[in-house]
Design goal:
It contains nine helices and six strands. It has helices spanning 3-7, 29-39, 50-57, 96-107, 126-136, 160-165, 175-181, 196-201, 206-227; strands at 10-19, 65-77, 84-92, 116-119, 158-159, 238-240. Helix 7 (175-181) crosses helix 9 (206-227). The longest helix has 22 residues, at 206-227. InterPro entries: 3'-5'_exonuclease_PolB-like, RNaseH-like_sf, RNaseH_sf.
């Protein structure tokens, strides 16, 4: 299939999440009790206390975390040549509701019945996390994210982890592993996902997280191209918007 047709209405995304509070003791009493129940079922080989485990692990659970950054990117073509280009930017902020409303506004610029979101492990993480946090923040889901009750073949969104699995659902491969396998430059030269909560709360460096998130989206798009048997976008044709 022609790449232009394949990439039409595909929006590549990646989210960065942190614990909802900087520390366990900032949770109200009711949510502290709920986290202690949750922590009892989390694998904890180092026997970390629930209040320390909150700082380390809460970010991956939509009930106890929040979104601080969403990277978005899309392939496009200039009229001057036939080379694909890729533009990526990141939406970020301390106010999660404002961030999600900005993201919703961006999504609704696309035809909702044709928009294809693509993320790595998106079906199990990014897509449901965004939906849950929108609901928590009292935001009506855009049509493209109204996934509940739909049959799998009715959902257009794509997941590069799913594409790599080929139906082998006992297998999990991180984005960075597949990037290394396909010779795609890593996004982990500065920080990794494990560092995001610390960089956000301790270093208060949201711009650093924004840069990292954008690079993850670049890697995601390049992997998507390789999994669809297309050439990757040349480095000089990648535009990183502020």
């Amino acid at each position: 299939m022609d790449l232009r047709k394949k990439a039409k209405n595909v929006l590549f995304i990646d989210i960065e999440t942190v614990s909802s509070k900087a520390s366990f003791d900032q949770l109200d009493e009711r949510m502290q009790e709920q986290w202690e129940r949750k922590a009892a079922n989390i694998r904890n080989d180092d026997h970390v206390a629930p209040f320390d485990l909150f700082y380390r692990r809460a970010a991956i659970y939509a009930e106890f975390g929040k979104i601080i950054c969403i990277g978005v990117g899309a392939l496009y073509w200039n009229t001057t040549d036939e080379q694909p280009r890729f533009k990526v930017k990141s939406l970020a902020g301390d106010d999660e509701r404002a961030l999600l409303l900005e993201f919703k506004e961006l999504l609704e610029k696309y035809p909702q019945n044709q928009l294809i979101l693509c993320a790595h492990n998106g079906k199990e993480f990014d897509f449901p996390y965004i939906c849950r946090r929108m609901l928590v923040n009292g935001i009506t889901l855009p049509e493209s994210l109204q996934l509940s009750g739909k049959k799998p073949w009715e959902i257009l969104h794509q997941d590069t982890l799913d594409m790599w699995r080929y139906g082998d659902y006992k297998s999990f491969a991180q984005l960075d592993l597949l990037a290394a396998l396909f010779g795609i430059p890593s996004s982990k030269s500065d920080i990794s996902g494990e560092d995001v909560t610390r960089v956000y709360y301790a270093e208060k460096d949201l711009d650093r997280i924004r840069r990292y998130c954008k690079e993850d989206v670049v890697v995601l798009a390049q992997l998507w191209l390789r999994l669809n048997q297309f050439e990757t976008v040349k480095p000089e044709n990648i535009v990183r918007a502020e």
